[in-house]
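Support reply, case 0932

Customer input (verbatim):
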Amino acid sequence: MTLEQLRSNRNALFWSLHAAGWGAYAISQYFGALLQAQPVAYQQVIAIAAVSGFVLSMPLRPIYRRLWGRPLRTMIVGVLASCYATALALRVVINLAYKYLVEPTWQFKTLFEVLEGSLSTTYLLLCWSTLYFGIKYYESLQQQREAALKATALAQEAQLKMLRYQLNPHFLFNTLNAISTLILDNQNRIANHAVARLAEFLRYTLDQDPMKKVTLRKEIESLDLYLNTERLRFGERLRLEYAIEEGALEALLPSLLLQPLIENAVKHAISPRENGGMIRIEGRTRAAMLELAVIDDGPGMREGLLQSGSRGVGLRNTRERLAVLYGESHRFAVLNSQPGLHVEMALPLETA
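Our regenerated output:
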């Protein structure tokens, strides 16, 4: 049985440690007898003492289970009483074995001689008890820690899924609104293409696990699905630039991390302007970090919105997802450039 299996099987762990403890007691007593030049018969006494200790201390486990969780004073009194009672029984066995095997001519004069050594044996059993409660307390802490980690992980997963699924209705509303506008303008052929592209993009988003990370290459491919829909609306008004280093393409990031930022840029920098505008996507690796940027040449943000770091669902959603996933290990900033808006982020570098 491996160490990991022992840890998961508490009964096997107890009996293994219980046997090892009394085995160590027998070995230490054996070497002590050799140093003191004790007769060979004394080794039999040691064996009887170890086996008796193994058997007589077994009831301590169920007793301590009942004591566990009681008030401290009750536990201390219960442990002392249990150890002393067990020590008395063990000393009777050891002393009788010593009399009959080592000194058969010796006669007990009083009852106290039969119980001689009970105090030192009590100390031995107190050491056994300390180890038992120490291991049990450690296991309890581990279980609490694992439960806390599991609860945190479940809460984090639920929050991430909520944030990811928040994108779909937001994006869907904007796209359907755009398709409706195309239909009202009698651009039915373009609207039909837009519906087909929308279905393709939604199929991709539904197939993606919200907890899964994808390569930057795959993220760009998913962006193209979205941008193909937007190009049907804006045509030449939507201009794109990519400045992504080859080494960054295999870096991992949360799926659909860039899409809401691109959607934000389309909404605020492309759609309101007659001549449209440019969106630039940058990606590179620096000092064990993946650095990404989405830049547009639109009007930027008003100072009040810039200070709050929010311009709708897209920026807020991205900021919250990064905070949940990476904590203090990431950077996210929204800056006005000349002209336009510059959204940059850095997250720990992971590769596929």
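We compared this against your earlier run and they match. Two observations from our side: The radius of gyration is 37 Å. Residues 241 and 280 are 5 Å apart (CA to CA). Please reopen the case if you see a mismatch on your end.
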